[in-house]
Amino acid sequence: MKLYTYFRSSAAFRVRIALNLKGVVYEPKFVHLPRGEHRAAEYMAENPQALVPLLVTDDGTRLAQSLAIIELLDELYPRQPLLPKELKARARVRSLSLLVACEIHPLNNLRVLQHLKRALGQSEDQLNAWYRHWIADGLAKVEADLKGKAGKFCHGDAPTMADCCLVPQIFGAKRFNSDLAPYPTTLRIFEECMKLDAFDRAQPSKQPDAE
Fold first, then answer.
1. CA end-to-end span of the chain, whole Å?
2. Which residues does 123 contact at the CB level (< 8 Å), separation at least 6?
3. C-alpha span between 154 and 172 (Å, rounded)
4. What's the pLDDT score for residue 84?
5. Helices 161-175 & 124-146 angle (0-180, nearest 10)
6. Non-local CB neighbours of 49 within 8 Å, separated by 6+ positions
7. Taking the mean position of all CA atoms in its chain, how far away is CA 161?
8. Cα–Cα distance measured from residue 12 to residue 7, given in angstroms and rounded to the nearest whole number
9. pLDDT tens track of the chain, all 211 residues?
């Protein structure tokens, strides 16, 4: 199994966590996003979406989009389930995952920040203000949804797909020096996750392509 990844990609980080939780050994294939390697013809032949992550399974099946990949892994490797069996619990984990992956992350990913800077002439300070604004807006929603409902982790007492999404987003927030004090439940869960080897090994600084 191969994973096309970039050490700072939040989406790839989610999948690295899931693979580690599942105990799946994979071969990392590095795609340097700031250098535009995801737009190279060779990579686009592998992944027409020109994004990371891309998972290539043992039988050659290619799948992009982190949440789709995590759900596939959950079907292929049922041990350490990342989605609950109960219908409403499963829907809640998807809801929390999508809150991060669809409401927070897209506003702050690399290509958006590059467009703000290159096409719209925004300064570094303006980029940082943009990032922190949407982090604050999104994490306030996450905190409200977790408060009084979360267990040890986002849903219950074992990590799920929601935790795979939350942790990379907190790493991004810390990188941009966002104020995280207003989100105590969210931070408690983040810290609980980072006690686990699967999360720790997946973090950006521990990847072979880290800079």
1. 24
2. none
3. 18
4. 97
5. 150
6. 64, 65
7. 10
8. 8
9. 999 999 999 999 999 999 999 999 999 999 999 999 999 999 999 999 999 999 999 999 999 999 999 999 999 999 899 999 999 999 999 999 999 999 999 999 989 999 999 999 999 999 999 999 999 999 999 999 999 999 999 999 999 999 999 999 999 999 999 999 999 999 999 999 999 999 999 999 999 999 9
User: Is there a contact between 4 and 53 (Cβ–Cβ < 8 Å)?
Assistant: yes
Alpha-helical regions (H) of the chain? 10-22, 41-46, 66-76, 87-98, 105-108, 110-118, 124-146, 161-175, 184-193, 197-202
Q: Work out the angle at residue 134's Cα, subtended by the Cα atoms of residues 15 and 63, and round it to the nearest 5 degrees.
A: 25
Contact, 178 vs 132, CB < 8 A?
Answer: yes
Rounded distance between C-alpha atoms, residue 44 and residue 47, angstroms: 5
Query: How is residue 180 written in tokens?
Result: 């995280």
Tell me, what amino acid is at 34?
P
- Report yes or no on whether pTM surpasses 0.90: yes
49: tokens are: 């979406």
State which amino acid sits at residue 203: Q
Query: What DSSP state is assigned to residue 34?
Result: T
**What span, in angstroms and rounded, lies between the C-alpha atoms of 189 and 114?**
31
3-class DSSP assignment, residue 165 = helix
